[in-house]
Design a protein that fits this description.
By secondary structure, this protein is α/β, with parallel strands linked by helices. It has two domains: about 60 residues, no CATH class; about 110 residues, Divalent-metal-dependent TIM barrel enzymes (TIM Barrel, Alpha-Beta Barrel). It has five helices and six strands; from the N terminus they run βαβαββαβαβα. Strands 1-2-3 form a three-stranded parallel beta sheet, with helices on one face. The two termini are about 20 Å apart.
């Protein structure tokens, strides 16, 4: 069975909260139900506690599909990253989900108004190795708890271009 989900960015923006500020969470969820989506990702207008989010979405016949998790593998040690990820795994499971959309945000520029997004960080070969190895370790950590980590490439981050994606996929496991 194929289920269809969406992201609340169509209603409000998590990078610039002024975009869509006039729309309520209820507007968003009602539209999702009416359109026929099965679920939705987490947005800033949603509850920050997993069980509360699950209940809110259920009011509209929706389920939690996934949510953004920022990793910082290039600047933090792996144990710090695991602790951060564990909190998001716990949230995801409490919300009824089993998937995380992660993005490496070490030195990212996509949220900095004073930096052009084309001035994004570019990794050295050593950083590529650290990132891909660390991401694999975090993915196994999540999988051991029944949660799948996907990767969300994003402008202004280390994985942005088609070439970045190809290299990451070649270096990462399944």
């Amino acid at each position: 069975m194929i289920l269809y989900g969406t992201n609340p960015i169509a209603w409000s923006n998590d990078d610039d909260w002024s975009l869509g500020d006039h729309l309520s969470l209820e507007d968003c969820l009602e539209d999702c139900r009416r359109i026929g989506f099965d679920g939705i990702e987490k947005g800033h207008k949603m509850p920050d506690e997993g069980t509360a989010l699950r209940r809110k979405l259920a009011e509209y016949g929706l389920r939690f599909t996934a949510g953004w998790h920022s990793t910082n593998i290039l600047v933090n040690d792996i144990e710090t990253e695991k602790a951060s990820l564990q909190a998001w795994i716990d949230f995801t499971r409490a919300a009824g989900g089993d998937h995380i959309n992660a993005c490496e945000c070490s030195n990212a520029v996509h949220g900095k108004d004073d930096v052009a997004v084309n001035d994004r960080p570019v990794m050295s070969d050593a950083e590529w190795e650290r990132f891909s190895t660390g991401y694999e370790e975090l993915s196994r950590f999540a999988a051991g708890q029944g949660v799948t980590m996907g990767y969300h490439h994003h402008m202004g981050t280390i994985i942005e271009s088609g070439e970045d994606i190809d290299r990451f996929m070649a270096m990462a496991g399944p």
